[in-house]
Amino acid sequence: MVLEKLKHVPDPTYVDAALLTEFTTSLFSATGMPTDEAHLCAEVLVDADMNGIDTHGVCYNLDLHYLTGLM
């Protein structure tokens, strides 16, 4: 199952980093996290994606690890 997630996506979708950071910040904030902390967490995840470290980025971790743990 984990190996399935690590497979290359044949047709990736590109999203503006600033918009993804804003969206991710809003999700963290919705859980009650202070805005400055939410923004920092979002920046770290988006930065990982921007540097090709998908296993530490938004799509791979947001729902699986972060939001479920905060809710």
Automatic annotation (TrEMBL):
It holds the Pfam family Ldh_2. Transmembrane segments: none annotated. This is Malate dehydrogenase. GO terms for molecular function: oxidoreductase activity.
